[in-house]
Specification:
With about 200 residues, this protein is α+β, with helices and mostly antiparallel strands. The chain has one domain: Gcn5-related N-acetyltransferase (GNAT) (Aminopeptidase, 3-Layer(aba) Sandwich). The protein is built from 7 helices and 8 strands. It has a 5-stranded antiparallel beta sheet with strand order 1-2-3-4-5, sandwiched between helices. The chain has a 3-stranded antiparallel beta sheet with strand order 6-8-7. The longest helix has 17 residues. The protein is globular. The protein binds coenzyme A (COA).
Length: about 200
């Protein structure tokens, strides 16, 4: 049985709850400094999109679906990290990928790196994947620093239409082989033994 609750040194990753939705709306969907770096959401934010996100986040099957973890610090929602099932990055349709956001106030403390390490241990363990992918705007240097610290390396570029910015944006595609991740951050089978 796959766990959906992971404790790290400072954080808890867990399934979203209905009570998170107000904070999600305030911290993420309505915050232009978050939304501007994402491809899919509208700007200005639309409540109808929140309902779709909520329906998916509350019901996602951890065994097979893209699984969105809520990130909690001291009992409060501060961000989210999604383990995306293969297909999200069309240039590498066979690869699972990762996506994330952190509230503006929680940035600058290494929380995202800590959450992503835990989420990737879970992701490698659940699918026995040998490679994870990520896609990041070419000018999103904060996110690229997180990805580099995780061990991701660039493998190519692509262009995506950004819905919030209403323009094409150059993106970098990055890869993280399991071996490199485990060399830097420990063995996923050991770290997530309970998830097997
Ligand atoms: C991308 C994003 C999550 C990065 O947030 P972040 O706070 O910079 O990332 P982390 O939580 O890993 O923190 C890293 C920073 O904390 C610092 N830090 C402080 N204490 C630390 C600690 N104990 N451990 C590690 N880093 C620490 C690091 O030096 C680093 O700062 P630097 O990048 O200036 O060197 C955030 O900018 C965000 O949500 N952006 C909008 C959404 C987005 O871009 N999503 C990704 C789309 S691809």
């Amino acid at each position: 049985m796959l766990t959906t609750s992971i404790d790290t040194q400072r954080l808890r990753l867990r399934r979203y709850k209905p009570e998170d939705l107000d904070a999600y709306w305030k911290l993420a969907a309505s915050n232009y400094d978050i939304v501007r770096w994402l491809t899919g959401p509208s700007w200005p934010p639309q409540k109808t999109e929140l309902e779709l996100v909520a329906e998916f986040a509350l019901n996602a099957d951890p065994a097979t679906d893209t699984f969105p973890f809520a990130i909690e610090h001291n009992g409060a929602l501060i961000g989210g990290v999604d383990i995306q099932k293969p297909g999200d990055i069309k240039e590498f349709p066979e690869l699972p990928s990762i996506g994330y956001w952190l509230s503006t106030q929680a940035q600058g403390h290494g929380f995202m790196l800590e959450a992503c390490v835990a989420a990737l241990h879970w992701g490698y363990a659940r699918s026995n994947a040998e490679l994870f992918a990520a896609r990041v705007f070419a000018n999103n240097f904060s996110s690229q620093r997180v990805l580099k610290r995780l061990g991701f390396e660039p493998v190519g570029v692509c262009v995506r239409f950004s819905k919030p910015l209403q323009q094409d944006i150059e993106n970098i595609i990055m890869h993280l082989p399991r071996e490199r991740f485990e060399g830097l951050h420990g063995d996923a089978h050991v770290m997530m033994g309970a998830a097997q």
